[in-house]
Amino acid sequence: MLKFLKTRRNRLNAAREIDPVTLPNCQLIKGIERGSEDIDILPNGVAFISSGLKYPGLKSFAPDKPGEIFLMDLNEEKPRAVELRISRGFDLASFNPHGISTYIDKDDTVYLFVVNHPHQKSTVEVFKFVEDDNSLVHLKTIRHDLLISVNDIVAMGPDSFYATNDHYFSDFILMFLEMFLGLTWSNVVYYSPKEVKEVAAGFYSANGINISPDKKYIYVADILDHKVHVMEKHANWNLTHAKTLQLDTLVDNLSVDPDTGDIWTGCHPNGMKLFYSDPENLPASEVLRIQNILSEEPVVTRVYADDGSVLQGSSVASVHGGKLLIGTVFHRALYCEL
């Protein structure tokens, strides 16, 4: 039993404290008060932000309110968050958005894929972004037996994607037991209308997922193993392990700078604080930049770190044109000029 408890504390980095790393030009984003769990930025500087996640075992500042998708245009002199309208016919009351990913089709149509947890189930919602009136048109809801406990997603086409299942079980008690026992039953699934299959397995908790600019590699964050896995992508969509980067923090979502290939990630320095959410001992935030991950010696830089007094529970960091957006699981969001 003591061994189990020690292992759990190690997985959650329960003893870790961090020194602050500040950035000179940061401000909290007005209107985002209850989470900004994932952020995806289009090449033109338009950012989508998922907000209002209610996740088993984690705090929510508005448990009875449905989730939202915000938009920020980083080209504006003073970017602001605008809530996107969602088309009629979509069940907004149960909208519980988690990871997101965008895909731009050959005809410049922008698709937004959203991991959704209506009634604590897992679906993937596909929307079309209508820029003229800042709205999302709901196209389809995807459900599948292999999409059990979906955390994040990276779109591969207008109706295909890779997704991470952060747990093998969807029941909260079994999820907790899975984490407590340190089972490596978490996986990555490839979905298309023609084929759905497991393409990588053996993770403690597969979380953030993204793709390299050259489309050759898929990056997977294992939040409870403090690792980023580099997976080679094959023509049949299968993935094989290429390398692993060990870190000393709980790695959440992964964003990739399309110009440099750098990976930016929002992290939880101490997962125990995230789960217990004690007002006297707030969950901290940390942003890492990973350069040259495919090389023998990747460079990892702590770009931002806060003890929770400004930003609690950072889950994502995404950059565009010298601007940095930092999102959180259930708290606020930060806009910085680098």
From TrEMBL:
What EC number(s) are associated with this protein in UniProt?
A: 3.1.1.2
- Which residues hold Ca(2+)? 37-38, 100, 151-152, 207, 252-253
Q: Name one Pfam family in it.
A: Arylesterase
Q: Which InterPro entries match?
A: 6-blade_b-propeller_TolB-like, Arylesterase, Paraoxonase2, Serum_paraoxonase/arylesterase
Q: Where is the active site?
A: 98
Location comes to:
Membrane
What is its membrane topology?
Answer: Peripheral membrane protein
Q: How does the record describe the protein's post-translational processing?
A: Glycosylated.
Q: Name one GO biological process term.
A: response to toxic substance
Record's Gene Ontology CC terms?
extracellular region; membrane
Molecular function (GO) terms listed?
Answer: aryldialkylphosphatase activity; arylesterase activity; metal ion binding
Q: What class of enzyme is it?
A: hydrolase
Question: Where does the UniProt entry place glycosylation sites?
Answer: 253
**What is this protein for, i.e. what is its function?**
The absence of paraoxonase activity in turkey and chicken blood and in turkey liver indicates that PON2, if expressed, does not hydrolyze paraoxon.
Which family is annotated?
Answer: Belongs to the paraoxonase family.
Q: List the protein's name.
A: Paraoxonase
